[in-house]
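tool_log.txt
---
The assistant was asked to compare two proteins side by side. It first ran the structure predictor on the initial sequence, then on the second. Raw inputs and outputs are pasted verbatim so the downstream comparison step can read them without reformatting.
(1)
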Amino acid sequence: MSDLIVLTNQRRFPRARVTCDIISGNRSQLWHSYTRDISLGGCRVAGSSPFSPGKPLALKMTHPSIPEPVAMVGTVVRLCGDTENAVGMVFAKQWSGMSKFEEWIRKVIANDPNAARIVSQTPDYLPLQAQLHRAPQPLIERLLLPGELALMQRLDRSTLPVPLLDLRTEWGDGWEQRAQVVFGLIAEGIILCSMPEQPMTSPAGVIVPPYATEDDPKPIAL
C-alpha cells in the first residue's frame, strides 16, 4: 500500500467534455463518429467501433471553432457497451505530429467556456486528509462511468464526509488508480472536497496570563 501523503492526478492534462467530429480508420475501413470527452492522452468516442482493441488507427478531428482539422494516431483500448456505448482511445505519444495536435486541442478547449472551466478547476493533487461529499444539487450532464458511480454510492452511504484516507484503507492495493475518478468529479462540481477543521491551539512559546483583559498588554513571545 502506498505511503504517499497526497493523491496525485495522473493525467498530464485534464479530460474535458468537448464534442469533436472524428474519423478513424485504416487502409480498408473508416468510421465516422464524435468525441464525448478528450484530453492530451486520449478520448472517448461515441458508438460501437468496428475496430478491435490493440490496432493503431489514423485519426482526423474537426471542431467548429477551429478552421483547420488535425491528424493523430490512436489505438482502441476499451469497448464500453450497455448505457455508456463508447470507445476508449489513447493517442500515440511519440507520433511526430503530437505537438501540433496538443496546440489544436488547447485552442478548442479555450474556445469552449465550460470545458475551459472544468480544466481550470481540476486539482493536480489532493491531501489524503481531504474529505469528499456529494454536492447538494449537482448538474450531471453525462452518464457516469462505473468507477464514478461506485464512488458516488460510497459517499451516499455515509452521513459524514468521507476522507481519502478511508478510501485508501477500504480499497487497499491499487486504490490510487481507482481514486483517479475523484479529480474529474470535483472539476465538474459533482462532488465537493474540503479539509477537516483544525483545533485551535495557543502558539508554542506564547504566555497568556489567566487574568488578561482587553486593556492588558498583548501576550509575550519567548
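(2)
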Amino acid sequence: MDMREYVIEISTEVFRVLQQQAPGYVAWSEEKPGPTQKIILGQDVYSEFIDRAIAHRQTLDQVVLAACTRAATQIFADGGLGGKSKRVKRTN
C-alpha cells in the first residue's frame, strides 16, 4: 500500500515540544531559523490532525501540542491516532 506523506508547518515552540515528547519521530537535524518549522506526516496522522483541528476549531499547533501532552507512547508509538505509527520528520 502506497502511503502518502504531507507537510505541515507548526510553530518553532511546538516543534521543540514535539522533539522533547516524541524524539524518535522528529529528525534531529538543525531547526531552521524562523517562527515555523515544517514536518512530514503520514496520511493517517495528517488526516487525524486536520479532522481534529476542524472538529474542535483549533489550529494545527493546538492539535499537535495536545497530541504531545497526551501519553506520547500511546499516540505515536502504537498508532493511537487512528492508524499505523508513522515517523514525523523535519524537512529542510
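---
observation on (2): The radius of gyration is 12 Å. Residues 5-90 form one domain.
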